[in-house]
Design a protein that fits this description.
The complex is a heterodimer of chains A (84) and B (562).
Chain A (H helix, E strand, L loop, with lengths): L2 H32 L1 H5 L2 E2 L2 E2 H31 L5
Antiparallel strand pairs in A: 1-2
Chain B lengths: L2 H22 L5 H6 L6 H12 L2 H14 L4 H25 L4 H8 L3 H33 L4 H51 L4 H4 L10 H12 L11 H17 L1 H4 L8 H37 L9 H9 L2 E3 L19 E3 L4 H8 L4 H39 L5 H24 L5 H25 L5 H23 L20 H19 L5 H11 L11
Antiparallel strand pairs in B: 1-2
Helix pairs in contact in B: 1-8, 1-16, 3-8, 3-13, 4-13, 4-16, 5-11, 5-13, 5-21, 6-7, 7-8, 7-16, 7-17, 7-18, 7-19, 8-13, 8-16, 8-17, 10-13, 11-18, 11-20, 13-15, 15-16, 16-17, 18-19, 18-20, 19-20
The chains are: A mainly alpha (84), B mainly alpha (562).
């Protein structure tokens, strides 16, 4: 495979990583830690929202993020003919 | 049947299963011994990774910690799951493509240097030993309570069982045994949680139950906050740790998770790069089942416990209380001699001390669940501790036989010789780990949490830069790893073991606890690595080609033959 194609694939990969890791940071560090008091003023049933993100929500999002990544990368591998 | 008979039956049955699987899948070559012949299905690998990962700390201690710390306990929940996102996105696919057996293998080849390899081996050994000692202690704890043997005997029984299937089966034996162990441990964790959730809230899903209202119509969390306020504890849904400390501890646990050698090595066991990604996804899904249930158990157990013991006549307390009192893990000291249990935050008035580690084990007893459920929890705790211990022992033996003997001391060793060396080093490792389990230095519990800081401070930057920064050279990586791990060891010894003049909470740098300091040491490692590498020659072309190659997922290939 030629180098420009390799670079394109890698760039696309890095773009996915940047987007997914921003969401990773947002749900845990921002919602669960930095803004927890502000979010705790909102209630979701018996849960305060900030507390819920710290002990439940962030974990659900983590699982979803990895499965989105798997899909995106499988599609990208196909597009660049890099499946093994 | 009583609890003890049930425990014998369930522990006996599950152990027969584990050992049966280990014998059935005996490893025959070194490749199979370390990484299961690279033919494990992603879902099976995900299950095994989950069992490998969820240790006595996750199963036995974590819900108890959360139940006492409330919101502050979130650091474990986010830290120990968020690390898998890093692992799946930044490490697993590339390390699988690289296609060697161990983490020091990657570091040694990528940084074209045996010094780098040796530094990585030493870091791997420090991390794995601190971790495994805690597991052996966990096994001893479960045995001592439920089989009524003393804790040392418990540790010795555990040593023989771990040794038996780790040495006999190697990674392949471990993979399928761990699949079985995951099933046992998750069943044992969920059954009491579901029972108690129905009992307290009428909702069979614990994740929803702890946000629901109790039988009296009050939301469970509001009730618990009220109880905490009444007794003088900090509000359950808010923490008492500083924000910066919570931030740094979470980061250290996440990055440490991604850098733990026994977790990384699991991703070498699948066929393709895309399977390595899938494995990480499945692993986190299976882990998340336990991790989202743990905070629910924490709330149920805390509420139940306070309601049962607080302001109750000592003579009216249920049987579980005296059972645990006899192990010394619950103590009652009637300071005002009124015969009533005062459980309050004020240390001068509080009469009850409860070891946080007993909450998960005692929870079904507190909720008056049937005896078989209580015994099941014991079997689950053992599964969790043994599976992690076995995975760690494999990393230790691979580090010694493969990274040190084969790659550095005697490259001409035969495959058979290497297999024997691997098994011998597993035996030695079990004995040392058992010794630590029987004679725990006071700081074992503290050190387990710190193993993550050590992994974050040493491996993580070297691996990430090795993949994402082609210009990274050996000088930078070696300097970074050494500075990172030494800085972390220094801070840990200063504030945990009182060496180098010691210090208290007020002396912490920027208010960051030793548990969170791994994040700081990791940043220092990154900076040192990048600065030093920009002043030293760039890596040779072959190495830069390796980097280009691992970034492409195709032609991952089989394990290199020895």
């Amino acid at each position: 495979m030629n180098t420009t194609k390799q670079q394109k694939y890698w760039k696309e990969n890095l773009k996915y990583l940047a987007i997914l890791l921003s969401i990773w940071f947002l749900v845990s560090y921002v919602f669960g830690i930095l803004l927890v008091e502000q979010l705790n003023t909102i209630k979701l049933g018996g849960f305060k929202l900030g507390f819920w993100f710290a002990q439940q929500g962030s974990i659900y999002v983590f699982v979803i993020l990895i499965f989105i990544y798997i899909r995106l990368m499988n599609r990208l591998d196909k597009k660049f003919n890099l499946e093994s | 049947m009583d609890i003890q008979t049930w425990t014998w039956v369930l522990v006996g049955l599950t152990f027969t299963l584990y050992i049966g699987i280990a014998i059935w899948s005996r490893a025959s070559s070194t490749g199979e011994f370390y990484v299961a012949g690279k033919g494990v299905h992603p879902i099976a690998n995900g299950l095994a990774t989950a069992a490998d990962w969820m240790s006595a700390a996750s199963f036995i201690s974590m819900a108890g910690l959360i139940s006492f710390d409330g919101y502050d306990g979130s650091v474990y929940l986010m830290g120990w799951t968020g690390g898998y996102v890093l692992l799946a996105l930044l490490l697993a696919p590339y390390l699988r493509k690289f296609g060697k057996f161990t983490v020091p293998d990657f570091i040694g080849d990528r940084y074209y240097s045996n010094i780098a390899r040796v530094v990585a081996v030493i870091c791997a050994l420090i991390v794995s030993f601190t971790y495994v000692a805690g597991q052996m202690r966990g096994v001893g704890l479960v045995f001592s309570r439920f089989l009524e043997v003393d804790i040392d005997t418990g540790v010795i029984i555990g040593m023989f069982i771990v040794l038996f299937y780790a040495v006999l089966g190697g990674m392949k034996g471990i993979t399928y045994t761990q699949v079985a162990q995951y099933c046992v441990l998750i069943f044992a964790f969920m059954v009491p949680a579901i029972f108690i959730s129905i009992q307290m809230t009428g909702n069979p899903i614990p994740q929803l139950g702890f946000g629901s209202a109790g039988t009296d119509g009050v939301y469970l969390l509001d009730k618990l906050n009220g109880l905490h306020e009444e007794l003088g504890f900090h509000e359950y849904t808010s923490g008492s740790k500083s924000k910066i400390d919570v931030f740094f501890i979470t980061a250290a646990l996440m990055v440490g998770t991604a850098g733990l050698p026994h977790v990384i090595v699991r991703f070498f066991t699948v066929k393709k790069v895309s399977d390595a990604r899938k494995s990480a996804g499945w692993a986190l899904l299976f882990i998340a089942i336990l991790y989202t249930t743990a905070p629910a158990i924490a709330v149920f157990a805390r509420t139940n416990m306070i309601e049962t013991v607080s302001n109750t006549e000592y003579d009216d307390l249920p049987e579980w209380f005296s059972n645990w009192e006899s192990t010394g893990l619950i103590t009652f000291d009637d300071k005002n001699k009124d015969g009533i249990v005062q459980y309050v935050a004020d240390k001068n008035k509080n009469e009850l001390t409860i070891d946080k580690d007993i909450m998960v084990l005692a929870n079904p007893e507190i909720a008056r669940l049937p005896n078989w459920v209580i015994a099941l929890v014991a079997a689950g705790g053992l599964a969790a501790a043994l599976s992690t211990a076995a995975g760690l022992l494999l990393v230790i033996s691979a580090s010694v036989s493969h990274d040190i003997i084969k790659k550095i001391i005697n490259p001409k060793i035969t495959e058979n010789g290497e297999l024997i060396a691997a098994r011998l080093s597993a035996v030695v490792a079990v004995i040392i780990a058992g010794w630590f389990g029987i004679n725990p230095p006071d700081f074992v519990a503290a050190t387990v949490a710190l193993a993550f800081g050590l992994a974050a401070a040493s491996f993580f930057p070297a691996i990430i830069l090795g993949i994402f920064y082609k210009r990274m050279n050996k000088e930078g990586a070696i300097a970074g790893m050494i500075v990172g791990i030494l800085l972390m060891l220094y801070y840990m010894m200063k504030f945990k073991f009182d060496w180098f003049g010691g210090g208290t909470k007020d002396d912490w740098w920027l208010g960051i606890s030793p548990e969170g300091f791994g994040t700081v040491a990791m940043f220092v490692n990154f900076i040192v690595s990048i600065v030093i590498s920009s002043f030293t020659p760039e890596p040779p072309t072959e190495v830069q080609e390796i980097v280009d190659n691992i970034r492409m997922p195709n032609n991952a290939g089989e394990a290199q033959k020895h």
